[in-house]
Amino acid sequence: MHCIKKITDDLVWVGANDRRLALFEGVYSVPTGVSYNSYLLTDEKTVLFDTVDKAVRQRFLENIEEALKGRKLDYLVVQHVEPDHSAVIPELIRLYPNIKIVCSEKVLEFIKQFYDFNLDSRVHLVDENKTLNTGKHTLHFVMAPMVHWPEVMMTYDSASKILFSADAFGCFGALNGALFADEVDFAKDYMDEARRYYSNIVGKYGTQVESVLDKASALDIEMICPLHGFVWRSNLNEILSKYMLWSRYQPEERGVMIAYASVYGNTENAAEILACRLRDKGIKTVVFDVSVTPASEIVSAAFKWSHLVFASTTYNAGIFVTMEALLNDLAAHNIQNRRVAIIENGSWAPASGGLIREILGKCEKIDILEKNVSILSALKAAQVSDIEAMAQAIGADFAAPATVNQNNKAVPNTVDPAAMFKLSYGLFVLTAKDGNKDNGCIINTVMQLTATPVKIIIGVNKANYTHDMIIKTGKFNVSVLSQSAPFSVFQQFGFKSGKDTDKFADCKEVSRAENGIRYLTKWTNGVISAEVKEAIDCGTHTLFIAEVNQAFSLSGEASVTYQYYFDNIKPKPQPQKANKKGFVCKICGYVHEGDTLPDDFVCPLCKHGAADFERL
Ligand code: FEO
Fold this sequence. Notes:
Elements: E1 5-8, E2 11-13, E3 16-18, E4 23-24, E5 28-29, E6 34-36, E7 39-42, E8 46-49, H1 57-68, E9 75-77, H2 83-86, H3 89-95, E10 100-103, H4 105-114, E11 123-125, E12 131-133, E13 138-143, E14 153-157, E15 162-164, H5 186-189, H6 191-201, H7 206-217, E16 223-225, H8 237-247, E17 253-261, H9 266-280, E18 285-289, H10 295-304, E19 305-315, E20 318-319, H11 321-332, E21 338-345, H12 352-361, E22 366-368, E23 373-375, H13 384-396, H14 417-420, E24 428-434, E25 437-443, E26 446-450, E27 455-461, H15 465-473, E28 475-481, H16 487-494, E29 510-512, E30 518-520, E31 524-538, E32 541-553, H17 562-569, E33 582-585, E34 591-593, E35 613-615
Parallel strand pairs: 8-9, 9-10, 10-11, 15-16, 17-18, 17-19, 19-21, 21-22, 21-23
Antiparallel strand pairs: 1-2, 2-7, 3-6, 4-5, 7-8, 12-13, 13-14, 14-15, 19-20, 24-25, 24-28, 26-27, 27-32, 28-31, 29-30, 31-32, 33-34, 33-35
This protein binds MU-OXO-diiron.
């Protein structure tokens, strides 16, 4: 039975999944399977983009038949001849004998190498200067040699702004009903597999990937359709930005990947002590036993992390077998631009360190710490300092760089509260209702989190009564204050406590939203009603993630920013009597008289802490 997925009104996914494949390309484990993507465009002409692996040919052929709805198949665009995408070409030709094969010279050469059928009468040769018009759509061809094979070609449909990207932007893992990357939590659940796919399949060819990225940057792309994994129709930058890093061999994260090969646990012991000492310095670490974790995962991790440590016992006067295979794999995948440290072990003639150095020394821009840690059989107390010295040397790279001001003067490594006021957040009246009791307070942290569904995040001080109401009821309104809001609004909602005041007693400019909660009808340019989905305890404050169920605009007036409030709304502090001693709240102007201000002091008006006070 066919299983197809609609992408646009005239483009359908006709690919298939394989969850029984043990090793992709006979070498890469795919525990969650793999998808072979193929796409059918039904314009005035019908166009199929690539075929699939022979393992899923039956489903694929059923899919095409269904998607064609009785029409003939006019064109097959062959972008990549690797058999996981070309295996069904011969059968397709038997089923659709009038089909034209759209391909480059190089693709044609490779098809002839793999298959024995008469091609020349049905080939429509293209290159970067040619286009193919299919009715409403015009296809442009982008040569992408070595991404992943030399014949690889991508296709850009300028009408729908779709890039058919061949192997690029692909991902391991079968599609579990979702076709689009935005239907899943890609960063959390699939980015590791996308990186493993990239680093192992095209990692060696970073320069060529960069060159294709350059070509792609000249195109107006709204969707990417790769040959494996998800279709990208939104937030394309999520995957494009990773490709920019990976293709340049730039690490994604600063931290240390430690890979060890240990026969009796002593080399492992040294690796783990190093990991602990690095963590003590606040440095992120991941540790792999190369005899257990598949090499493809460690290659992928090496593409992710900035620093790499290799620890290996000496074996047959060489590097332990699994470590040697990993290092050769890394070198073959062109790993570069990393800091490396080496730990060797050997009971009578430790030699692995020098040999590891030899392999990695051939890679570009690999900076290896001068001193290996060398162990005879097992780490002894006297040698723990060597591991600590290695942690120290690696840790030096992670020390905070000296920061300077505009005059190139060093600035102290402290938290200046004034810098927080530079943030561009606005000011809002947050309202809630508990039974018959209405309340509201001023907050400065509201931001949209997601668009589908619309979710916002708000930060609320736990000392506010409104906070307790939201915890209890899970509902609130946000009135976005506009620039006409007078200081009295901030005094009314910001400098009093709803626990002992009815903040709405004298407020006539209010109404109720669909959720029954009040909002301000004046000095407000927009109102958002939301229901809490998640609350995150952040110490003094709670962050509420909430789904918006009503939102409307009230005026076109500009919103109040924090800066606007301080410059134009908040009264300027009055000159103080010369002999008066005390501290003034920079937020609301409250003065606490006295020689000292306790660290845990909280402003009785606006609830800000001691950090927001300055000496008179
Ligand atoms: Fe999925 Fe290079 O083939």
